[in-house]
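pls read this protein:
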Amino acid sequence: MWDYDEEGVTILIDGVVDGQPRKLATHAARNGFLYSFDRTNGQTILAKPYVERINWTSGIDQKTGKPLDYDPKLDIQVYPGGRT
């Protein structure tokens, strides 16, 4: 019913971020954002839109990797839409 499957490939990259060597996992999610995480500790390195129009959130918190509209008090998140 919700179609939560992801078909994209996660790419493993040994790269440099802010002058420091990092082991990254990068994934272009079907929600319109490209995510890069440190694969040794799960830290969000980057969450950047890769499509022109995203209407489900106003953005991603670069520190947590969660949508800016995320409300930890809710059991079920409802994203009314962000930028159009």
